[in-house]
Amino acid sequence: MAWIAERRRQSRFEAVVLPHLDAGFALARWLARNDADAADIVQEACLRAFRYFDSYREGDAKSWLLKIVRRTSYDWLERNRPAEVVPLELEGDPDGSVHSPPAGARDADALLESRSDLRRLDVLIESLPPPLREAIVLRELQELDYRQIAEVTGVPIGTVMSRLHRARAALRRAWDGKGCG
Amino acid sequence: MECDEVRPRLDAYLDGELPETERVPLRGHLQDCPDCGPEAAALERLRDDIRRSAPVHRAPEALRSQIRFALRREAAASRPSASLRAPGWLAYAASILLAVAVGSGGTFLLVGERQTDTMAGEIIDSHLRSLLGSHLTDVASSDQHTVKPWFAGRTDLSPPTVELRSEGFPLVGGRLDLIAGKPVPALVYKRREHVINLFVLPASPADHGETLTRRGYNLRHWDEGDLGFWTVTDAAPSELAEFERLFRAATKG
Hints:
The structure holds 2 protein chains of 2 kinds.
Chain A: H1 2-17, H2 21-32, H3 35-51, H4 61-80, H5 103-113, H6 121-127, H7 130-141, H8 146-153, H9 157-178
Helix pairs in contact in A: 2-3, 2-4, 3-4, 4-8, 5-9, 7-9, 8-9
Chain B: H1 3-6, H2 10-14, H3 20-32, H4 36-53, H5 61-77, H6 82-85, H7 88-103, H8 114-132, E1 139-140, H9 144-151, E2 171-179, E3 182-191, E4 194-202, E5 212-214, E6 217-224, E7 227-233, H10 237-252
Antiparallel strand pairs in B: 1-2, 2-3, 3-4, 4-7, 5-6, 6-7
Helix pairs in contact in B: 3-4
């Protein structure tokens, strides 16, 4: 009875995934930077997740959903705002070390300094390049650990560390510099 | 530990990702070092500022229901048309029941309330599904203290659960079912060889009190507080009414 199976699947999906809808919406909102687009993205992501639901294994449902929301966000941005999706500059340290100087932080700095409305921390975060922004949002606001962030963003843990470091360095320079901290 | 070892580890230290063996010497260094200590404090301040001042974005309530709706449509798209849903023999059996019911004259009680009819249809569908496969119960137990806790965390409706074996309605178990697309608790009782499904939903203004007969099945509906109860069975209407009386008396106690 395929349709019974399908309804059961739907109800299981809702029980597993919908509790993390706020987290998914928040991530999409930080990436798209407005409520209406975030809502479109999250709905699309949920339908995608539902289609892939058979590939979900018991475990970290939040990371699983966030991974799909993130992917959907970038697909959506590529379709609707291609100018925003520029590849992050080459991220050195493939060995995962964070010793090398944060080259990307300088780009982020330049971006932050080019804006005049950067008196609010949330605006500063929104101004970060998406890879740094998502790292800081997942860590500080969703409180994921490094392993989960690596899983959601599809990069090694070393890259997560270096992105967090660069995001914080850029935020501190802009934030502390304004003397609003 | 020296400054040049400490700096690259500061983020991981504050994020609680440093192994114990590195955490202890690093903490010692922070207490002593006039450069690294304030650096760590500044990072911590930034974290506090972010967590305190960044807006908390929550999914709008409308989005939640929109998504549920889209999921239902998606799930429905993968199933054949309604007329093909029931297997042939079931449709056949139902048509005979219908003919018998109509033929016996007036067994069908026509109720104008569209809401009641829609709900009755859903309830009977669920009742039939439960009888068809091997899925009468998710938790098979005649112990009310096993059945009731099973629902905790699976649905936000907590069904009052009572044992009515001595009254001739033994509890068989419980399961999670779908009514109008929402997971709801269903309790399963028996009357001799007849199954009685009892669904617990939010209270609703649908008709109360009368026994409805639809497609050869008898249904009753009542509200208690903010919960609505629907029973369905192929046992006789008088037995269903008796079950309701006993269940309500026992749960009030």
